[in-house]
């Protein structure tokens, strides 16, 4: 596996082979490895990146505490046959000589609801770094987890707005046996908190069951009540949304998704589930 921190080495690869790209911020878990496997299964030369992108963190503590373990990540990538990994420093991604306006995008309403509303500037930062990474890696296909469902929608929008020749593939969320969605942030949960965190999956599956039997409003009110029973939880949102527009789901919505974000102590967790 090629391990590099320079743009030039990655640029040399893309001149030769069709690339499947898996951008990550490291602290890799099985969810990330499924993205690499999905790329390998398509027969693509697979490049992963590990870059904790400062421009997408609205909370400085979250950025500072983001777990980093390059050695472990490299071993994990090797174990699933990843072909190359790009681990740049900040100045290699955000070069002083670059035209910053080229990478600044407005995704409209979708950027201002749910994750966008709770993390101002987050999607602008994601759009910016993904655009730069796509320019460097020049992938044919790029793979993203469905766990970050709104991020996936934003990236699809980026590609369509800029008419980029990149296929975006969403890969289903990988869960622990308990139902907890795999996330790099889970590393910061205590054992006790990990048990409590299953409430998210319980509420999502309950909502999926109840959907159509009672009103969406009653479902969300009941979920909020469940989160209030433990003071360590702070629910940011739980909603049933139209999976395309990200507006509240209506009776005639073809695709419905339950989306949730909640803080357990200091750790912010997000998840979602296809309802219809
Ligand atoms: O999902 C992530 O890990 C990040 O948001 C991404 C897509 C790598 C951009 O920094």
**Order of helical and strand elements:** EHEHEHHEHHHEHEHHHEEE
What is the assigned CATH homologous superfamily of the largest domain?
A: HUPs
Distance between the termini: 40 Å
Net shape: globular
CATH hierarchy class name of the largest domain: Alpha Beta
Number of domains: 2
Describe the structure.
There is one protein chain. With about 280 residues, the chain is α/β, with parallel strands linked by helices. The chain has two domains: about 1-170, 3-Layer(aba) Sandwich (Rossmann fold); about 185-275, 2-Layer Sandwich (Pantoate--beta-alanine Ligase, Chain: A,domain 2), CATH 3.30.1300. The chain contains eleven helices and nine strands. The protein has helices spanning about 5-15, 30-40, 60-65, 70-80, 90-95, 115-120, 120-135, 150-160, 190-195, 200-210, 215-230, and strands spanning about 1-5, 20-25, 45-50, 85, 140-145, 165-170, 235-240, 255-265, 265-275. The strands form two sheets. It has a six-stranded parallel β-sheet, sandwiched between helices. The protein has a three-stranded antiparallel β-sheet with strand order 7-8-9. Strand 2, helix 2 (about 30-40) and strand 3 (about 45-50) form a beta-alpha-beta unit. Helix 7 (about 120-135) packs across helix 8 (about 150-160). The radius of gyration is 19 Å and the shape is globular. The model has no long low-confidence stretch (mean pLDDT about 95). Pantoate binds next to strand 2 and helix 7.
In short:
With 276 residues, the protein is of the alpha/beta class.
């Amino acid at each position: 596996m090629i391990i590099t921190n320079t743009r030039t080495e990655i640029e040399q690869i893309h001149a030769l082979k069709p690339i499947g790209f898996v951008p990550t911020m490291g602290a890799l878990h099985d969810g990330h490895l499924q993205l690499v496997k999905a790329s390998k299964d398509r027969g693509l030369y697979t490049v992963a990146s590990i870059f904790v992108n400062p421009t997408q963190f609205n909370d400085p503590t979250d950025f500072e505490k983001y777990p980093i373990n390059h050695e472990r990540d490299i071993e994990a990538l090797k174990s699933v046959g990843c072909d190359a990994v790009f681990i740049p420093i900040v100045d290699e991604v955000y070069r002083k000589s670059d035209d910053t306006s080229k990478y600044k995008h407005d995704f409209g309403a979708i950027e201002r609801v749910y994750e966008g509303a709770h993390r101002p500037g987050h999607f602008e930062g994601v759009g910016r770094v993904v655009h730069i990474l796509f320019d460097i890696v020049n992938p044919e296909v790029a793979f993203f987890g469905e766990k970050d469902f709104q991020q996936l929608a934003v990236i699809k929008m980026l590609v369509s707005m800029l008419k980029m020749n990149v296929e975006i593939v969403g890969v289903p969320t990988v869960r622990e046996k308990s139902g907890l969605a795999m996330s790099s942030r889970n590393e910061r949960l205590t054992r006790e908190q990990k048990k409590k965190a299953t409430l998210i999956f319980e509420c999502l599956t309950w909502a999926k069951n109840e959907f159509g039997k009672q009103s969406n409003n009653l479902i969300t009110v009941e979920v909020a009540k469940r989160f209030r029973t433990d003071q360590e939880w702070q629910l940011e949102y739980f909603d049933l949304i139209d999976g395309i527009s990200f507006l509240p789901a209506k009776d005639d919505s073809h695709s419905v998704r339950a989306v949730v974000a909640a803080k357990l102590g200091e750790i912010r967790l997000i998840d979602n589930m296809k309802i219809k």
